[in-house]
Amino acid sequence: MKLNPDCIRDILIQCENVITFNNSYYYARGSSSSLAEKYSHDEIIYHIKQAKDAGLISTGPFYDAGESVHITDLTPAGHEFLANARTETVWNKLKSMGIQSLPILIDMARGLSSSYFKSLL
Fold it and tell me: d(Cα 20, Cα 1) in Å, to the nearest integer?
């Protein structure tokens, strides 16, 4: 499957909005969520796995062959990526580059965000 940076960012935003010390984010096929309105189940599960493998989120196991998963938290790297990619100006510039590698996307978000905020000083 082709990497969809918007899906990665939306997963992180959804997690940030839901997860607390006592609350995880539970995603299951057929759930009614803002993610399910925008992306297919396969796309969501694939990108959750990619975010986990990149060290952006912590999850429990994928249940029933990928039918559902608990995302327990954003990692420090996940919080950093989201902070760097939160500004629409930075995010749109990243997307316009057509980056299809998550490690490069994370690195470029860091660099662009730093440059963007330095320009505001």
Answer: 31
The amino acid at 83 = A
- Using alpha carbons only, what angle is made at residue 56 by residues 80 and 35, rounded to the nearest 5 degrees? 105
Alpha helices, H only, 71-101: 76-85, 88-96
Cα distance between residue 19 and residue 73, in whole Å: 6
Q: Which of 61, 44, 55 is nearest to 10 (CA)?
A: 44
For 52-87, how does the pLDDT look when each residue is reduced to its tens digit (9 = 90+)?
A: 999 999 998 888 877 889 999 999 999 999 999 988
**Which pTM does this prediction carry?**
0.88
Rounded Cα–Cα distance for residues 46 and 30 (Å): 15
Distance CA 111, CA 81 (A): 11
